Amino acid sequence: MLLSRYCPVTTANLAILRLMSITEFMSKASEEETMAEHHCNQLVEYANPLEQNKNLLENKTALERCISGLKLSHGDEIAAYSTEGKILDSENQRLREQSCFGYNAEIEKLRSKSASDDEELRNLREESQAYRRLQEEFSEFKAGSSKRDITMNHLKTSVENYEAKVPELKQILQTNAEMIECLTQDLDNTKFELKSSTEKFIMLEAEITTANIELKKL
Predict the structure, then answer these.
(1) Predicted confidence (pLDDT) per residue in 184-213, tens digit
(2) Where is coiled-coil annotated (predicted)?
């Protein structure tokens, strides 16, 4: 169509147009063929599960017929099995309840033991704390005892030093006592001399008074 606009319509041009149309048609046909193959493959993929489902349905139907036949031919056995199953279920339930009761009793026992263990653990902790306090008090007492020992040693040293100085102090006291005795004797002598001097002074005053009287008479 485009060539007909720009080129004169000739037999050659028509042939070219037909070839282009054929080529376009072949290209579209190839694409459609590819799509058809893709759809066929999809159909095959869908068909396989359908075939499998069909086989499963047939097998299910055959199995149901077989089960129906077995039920008809072995109905008594099935009923017996059902009864036995119920008995077993009942026994299983009884054993389960019994086991649960036993487990519950064991759990309660363990809980009681756990509570007792917790109480014992608390007692041990309290004893441990008391023991720790005693250790602290003993450490404090030991420290105080060490201080007291140091003080006692210091006092002992002081006493020993004092005892070493006692003879010297006794000698000093003896000397002081002798000095006091001498001073006392000197004081007594001084008092006696003072008394004598006082008596002499009184006598002199009397003599002076007498002399003054005699002087006045003269």
Answers:
(1) 888 888 888 888 888 888 888 888 888 888
(2) 107-172
Q: Report the C-alpha gap between 75 and 83 in whole angstroms.
A: 12
Summarised one tens digit per residue, pLDDT across range 30-64 is 677 777 677 666 766 666 666 666 677 777 777 77
What distance in Å separates the CA atoms of residue 105 and residue 99, rounded to the nearest whole number?
Answer: 10
With the CA atoms of 211, 212, 213 and 218 taken in that order, what torsion angle do they form, in degrees rounded to the nearest 10? 90
Give 180's DSSP letter.
Answer: H
Exposed, middle or buried, 17 (CB in 10 Å: 0-12/13-18/19+)? middle
Query: 33 phi and psi, to 5 degrees?
Result: -65, -40
Interatomic CA distance for residues 39 and 45, integer angstroms: 10
Residue linked to tokens 């809980």: 111
Distance (Å, rounded) from C-alpha 172 to C-alpha 175?
5
Nearest C-alpha neighbor of 1 from the set 82, 190, 158, 18: 18
Is the whole-model pTM more than 0.90? no
Cβ pair 78, 71 in contact under 8 A: yes
- Both tokens of 3, joined, read 């060539």
Alpha helix stretches (DSSP H) within the chain:
2-6, 11-73, 75-217
SS3 category, 168:
helix
Give every CB contact of residue 78 below 8 A, 6+ residues apart in sequence.
Answer: 70, 71
